[in-house]
Write a structure and sequence with these properties.
alpha/beta, two-stranded antiparallel ribbon, seven-stranded mixed beta sheet, 6 helices, about 30% strand, Rossmann fold, about 30% helix
Length: about 200
């Protein structure tokens, strides 16, 4: 089964608040995006944000240049229905992040919570980092959250990678200046916890 079919099946069979990574609000992500000090017209992309409520909160905060990318069209449709008329304020991209053609040096802020740790091959990770390097403006902000060192080794039936701040930053390389890192214990809808690691970098 390919990745798109896998994730479409996940979102077709589970409610948006019944997946392990669900949070009503992504508080840590919002905090780090706020620290970028970008204005309401900054170009923000949320990678893997198909059903995430981050877009709701960004729009509520006045952001007016938000793109949501997800491999699953099913997940994107869920968010469009939830947002109603506000969905028209968002650019929606249904694509695999390792293969999509993104606009060159377009984004001020790149956000990813829980996509990168599903890239288990070195080739996939290299393609991902190339995408970030090409699509983010010089001096732009890159916020990536993965499972931390004590995070799960599997999620939604797929193997995952786990990182500390050094190993995650090393995947991106010297073009990225690490500004801040933090771990977070995420409480899942099932009463368990997952350790997430956040890294906030600036593209040199």
């Amino acid at each position: 089964m390919d990745q798109k079919t896998h994730w479409d099946n996940v979102y077709k069979t589970k409610a948006s608040d019944a997946v392990s990574w669900y949070r009503p609000h992504l508080e840590k992500s919002l905090e780090l995006i706020c620290k970028t000090n970008t204005d309401r017209f900054a170009s923000i992309i949320d990678v893997g944000g198909g059903e995430s409520t981050l877009v709701d909160d960004l729009l509520k905060d006045g952001c007016r240049n938000v793109s949501i990318l997800d491999i699953s069209e099913t997940a994107i449709e869920v968010s469009k229905r939830r947002l109603g008329d506000n969905a028209a304020l968002v650019t929606w991209i249904a694509a695999d992040i390792t293969q999509v053609e993104l606009p060159f040096q377009h984004y001020d802020v790149w956000h990813d919570r829980a996509v990168f740790h599903f890239l288990t091959s070195n080739e996939e990770r290299i393609k991902y980092v190339r995408q970030v390097t090409k699509a983010v403006k010089p001096g732009g902000h890159v916020i990536v959250a993965t499972f931390g060192p004590q995070g799960p080794e599997k999620c939604s039936g797929l193997s995952t990678m786990r990182y500390d701040a050094d190993t995650l930053h090393n995947e991106f390389g010297t073009k990225f200046k690490l500004i801040e890192s933090a771990t977070e214990l995420h409480n899942t809808p099932f009463g368990t916890t997952q350790q997430f690691l956040y890294c906030y970098c600036v593209l040199k």
